[in-house]
Amino acid sequence: MKQFCVAAGILMLSISVKGQLLLRQADSIRIESQIPELSYVILTADHILTTNTLGFHRSDVQNTTTKAKSTDYFHLGSNTKAITGFIAAYLVVQKKISWNTRFFDLFPELKKDANAAYLDITLADCLSHRARIKPYTSGTELVKLPKFTGTVSERRSQFVAYLVKDEPVQKTNAAYSYSNAGYSVAAAMLEKVSGRTWEKLVDDILSKKLHLNYKFGWPNKTNTIQPWGHWIENGVLTPLPGTTAYNLNLIEPAGDLSMPIDDYAKFIQLNLSGLNGKDNLLKSETYKYLHYGQNDYSIGWLNVNSKGKQISEHAGSAGTFYCYTLINTDKNIAYIIIANCATENAQKGIFKLLNKMIQSKAADY
């Protein structure tokens, strides 16, 4: 027993030393890369190995009020796609819909005026970027749209009706054609079969079933004491007020959720656990389909899927935050880094930190 206690003490000391070294490296990278606030996690399916949130909510106000907290919300950007895919999977398990359900089987009234290129698109096509729907990855595309009216869900429905009449992207040799708007089409399908808006479905799954905290939109949209996103204005890193007219409602299912790092990490743990053979809210086989069901990009996840090398990843940014997640199924480990700016310098810093996290031999924590 005494030998066991000594060994356990040495292990805990090793974990503390490694964690403190990574903390110093992370803060140095944060400052060097001009990232106001940075949060990171290394986790396995069962444990949080190390996590920290560093810096300040705003670049221009750095005091005790704006100091980083572990409960701070960060905008996930396109990492929201994995959550919409998760909700779709839950409805598939509930037999409300299938991956092969065709859009026009649910919306026959839109078929008459639709572009023939979309007649056979399915739920899986929309979620894996194989429906050839235009990307809507820049604000300029959204600005050119007709004015839609009503609730957020009603405006999104009008957007979807507009999309299926529009021209598709040209066919290429690429496995998929990335589209935020494709997730709006998928969300319309989920709303139709469930009788719930996408927003209510998010609440049903994230809040009621998984007990996770989240917000729609920017973290500081309803609370100015949350992290502010940043971008470059006149050559200066500038915090973005939550009231800025930068509306992502039409493509919300593709990229407009915010979560605290601890809650987002729990969601990633569910995925990693499922990928390693354990059922939870979804079956293990469902997780494998979400991450690796199709090559290159499956449902909300980019992937490398070969013998002895199963890796899924995703980056998300609407221009003012940056979220990156890497899941290594074979090694039962995942890495998350989120920052409240997405400049080129910040992104370089994020991936520099990722390398430090990987090199830290986190599996030995």
UniProtKB/TrEMBL annotation:
Segments passing through the bilayer: none
Alphabetic keyword roster: Membrane
Annotated Beta-lactamase-related domain residues: 33-345
Cross-referenced InterPro entries: AmpC-like, Beta-lactam-related, Beta-lactam/transpept-like
Cellular component per GO, a single term: membrane
Subcellular location: Membrane
Official protein name in the record: CubicO group peptidase (Beta-lactamase class C family)
Organism for this UniProt entry: Pedobacter metabolipauper
